[in-house]
Amino acid sequence: MIRxxxxxxxxxxxxxxxxxxxxxxxxxxxxxxxxxxxxKTTLFNVVAGAYAPDEGxxxxxxxxxxxxxxxxxxxxxxxxxxxIAHEFSTLTVRENLMTVPPAQDxxxxxxxxxxxxxxxARERAVREKADEVIDFLQLGHVADELAGxxxxxxxxxxxxxxxxxxxxxxxxxxxxxxxxxxxxLKAIGEAILRLNRERGYTFCMIExxxxxxxxxxxxxxxxxxxxxxxxxxxxxxxxxxxxIEAYLGRGLKNRPARTRAPEAxx
Length: 266
Description:
The chain has helices at residues 40-47, 70-75, 93-98, 109-114, 116-136, 152-163, 182-199, 210-216, 234-239, 241-248, 250-254, and strands at 2-11, 14-24, 29-33, 55-60, 63-64, 78-80, 170-174, 202-206, 220-224, 227-232. The protein is of the alpha/beta class. The protein folds into two domains: 2-87 and 152-248, 3-Layer(aba) Sandwich (Rossmann fold), CATH 3.40.50.300; 92-149, no CATH class.
């Protein structure tokens, strides 16, 4: 579905993404992991149109979408969420959802003046869709709460809900579990799985919680120093010496056993 070919993005002299190539299969929940500074979020930003790459290209179902603006990618069904949720804090949960669908009838002065019945009908339809999303995510108890008053986990659920208000084909999730308590993290994971299995959503997610990744993702792609290091199942990448080395560092991996810090409980 998504094919990234030899992607390069530099900032000054730093090659944040350095010739990365990967594929995201339709219908999969793909994990993207790696140590801090590996280039994961920069790669997301290039694919999602926030940055133009210096080299390489991005394909969506064979169509070259390299460098397209985020709003044009939105129209093609490619969406992303952020590590820090971007809600409209002074709008309610329901109102946040209702702002998402594009080209609503009430957005033009002509329709507001001369076609008020069409505006009202469209608003009813959008509200019904928002209520369906609220029910799906079990957010009914906060539907009329200002989004700025939600917990971190509830804001992440709201961001996921906003992707449901349009015809999403692939959603990029940037650390959806960051700062979320275990109860809400479980709810987020279940919602992602349901969207994948019941509605055919394709996901690619950056995450540091390997238990969370293990429950949701197959395959898992590992990045290090701007490059794709390897990919496979969670078990395969956790056992890969290159992945261990990328996370722990060459010095720790190769240090004589007697100089290493003792194991917990030793």
